Fold each of these.
Amino acid sequence: MTAVTGPRTSLEDFFTHGLDSAPEHETLERVAQLLDALERGVVRAASRTPEGTWRTHAWVKRGILAAFRHSETVELDWPGGAVDRSLVPARWFGLADGVRLVPGGTSVRRGAHLARGVVVMPPSYVNVGASVGRGTMVDSHVLVGSCAQVGSDVHLSTAVQLGGVLEPVGARPVVVEDEVFVGAQCGLYEGVVVRERAVLAPGVVLTAGTTIYDLVHQTELRGEVPEGAVVVPGSRPARGDYADVLGLSLYAPVVVKYRDGSTDAATTLEGALR
């Protein structure tokens, strides 16, 4: 997953230095330009640096927040009816977008990027500022939260939740890099980064403060899943006499191995499904 570059300088300058003093008409014009750029993927809420770290672009979040601040609450033309903020309604897709959006309750909000080859199964929701890379499968009941960054050829299985973040503007969003497999009912929150080709077994829940126990390297990790790591839900004994009496244990995600041929076979998707 590489950083996206493009003609953004004037937008960045505006939302960094000029937003507070700009007249309403200019703000609305700039907000529309930003949302268009986000949808095209030439601007992103966060990008990977050449060193591999993830940099949050606070000015993008300021622009998204401006979209909400300058919106009105209106009725929208949507199956079954909808009421939302006027500048960030649901997007419409056509054949030219190269995205397969299966009918049945899915919504992708204005300002979200879906690359060509993405498949979204119903019902799912992709929020403003999120980016989903080429060839990724978004399965049923998945939430891709605001500004979450999802790479190419990722599989987000049924009921996966990727938490969103707009404030504080400097906070890192959830990041799922290329070729990651995220099992059913996993939850990723608070800016957790899942590196390339990692595998999360069903039910893994990670926050920025969750300790991940790497049994392979005998170390403890926080806030990031290493490249190719296979993580499963685990437990460890709770401390204290009371916990001992009741036999209580605490949730503890565990790296049990790193990706190999057998793992690849287990996570391969039939191409026809895409």
Amino acid sequence: MRWIRSALVIRNVLAVAVTTAAVAGLAGAGITASAAPAELNTADLKTVPFEVSGELPIYPKALWSNGSSSVEVRKVEARLIQLKLLDKRWLDNSYGTMTRSAVKKFQTSHDIPPLGYVDENTWKKLSAATREPTRAELYPPAPVVNGVKLDERCASGVALCIDKSTRKLRYVVDGVVKMQFDVRFGAQKTATREGGFSVGWKSRNHVSKLYDSPMPYAMFFSGGQAVHYSSDFAARGYNGASHGCVNVRDLAKIRQLFDLVNVGDKVIVYRS
């Protein structure tokens, strides 16, 4: 029986300690132990977006967030474009910084914590505020220039649309061709790669270390391959070839293009 009495004493001591700590904590927060919940000053309480577990807020699960890439992301972007919160150039299946910024704007305007990602609540409210995007909204028709249909990947956003068949580079913004250039490509053994790329970096006065040749206004899109001005192309035309780069021979126009193009802009190399 003695050990039972000892255990009861210890339990009572612990209960008193816990109660004292709780009262001290409430007092430190400016709340007395005797105050009823209805008497609390709600202005002194910190709010969190959702539930609270201990000291940490529990945020809702993200359906799509920064770095996501899918057709569903394209649908989110199309709806944001309907609300004029996102520019058409960012309709690209990729949840990047511009999509995140647009989502934050939408959340703020609809009294949703601006977390910057799409959770179930945000998606429901975005769906209610917009209509189902049409196929033309999701996949704008490819622009046609002089009877030639551009690659469909050039139909939205900003793109350097490079056609090997017509040997043309077109600077396209939201399906509108803003500038057009004659270009040449690599020889058979140093072929210019085809596919969808993006501008990785730019170098205004670049010089190739491999070939010790100038590459002014270089816009790199695939390893060492870049769009750049070529004095050889200007002098010899299609009698020569590059080492894999996309050569431009109009110096004045590529100067303008270099200033217009941003890192991250699409580069589409294809055959029509």
Amino acid sequence: MGTPPPHATDGFWESTGATKTFTHPLDAELLTEFVPRTARVLDYGCGYGRLTAELVGSGYRAVRGVDRSAALIARGRREHPGLALMRWAGFPLPFADRSFDAALLFAVLTCVPDDAGQRAIVGELGRLVRPGGVLYVSDVPLQDDAFHRGQYERFAARYGTYGVFETEDGGVFRHHPPEWLRGLLREAGFAVLRERRTVVPTLDGRTAERLQIMARREPAGAPAESGTG
């Protein structure tokens, strides 16, 4: 997999976005059911290391955090000295195939509005997670309230995708049909094991429903399965 072009949203995450307080919490029950504390874990799109630090504090010792943003990684090193945080903007990441037992992808796809960028991320995690390992995704499905529907409709023509919208402070985000997220996982060789929906605060002080998906990396050629919980 080659290095993708810079994301159009990179500038936001080197400036205004790097000051944000991220809001998707770990579901400890879901995490510990599928990810033992002995697991080698990649926190991709780790930002300033919020969840990386939480994992280490919970007893996970082999955790690596990677993010595209130099500003976020610099913040993480200030706030969480000693964490294994790395800034790496392109693909492939500097790890061998099947290097990890689990990966986290928390509110990352919502920050990548284009299809190709999302496929590149999930595909790279499919390379790095060993067969039988898991990918724990937390992201934002399409919302059904009037405010969000208005945002989607307002920006649909500009971006060509219903669910992409801009925020007043210059961010560009994407909310997804759940079947799109499941399809990305299938393409990268993952089978959905569990899904959960909860309501979480957003970066702009509102609330939104989030969708958590726990998916298993299947051996090459294995049929995908799906399940909800």
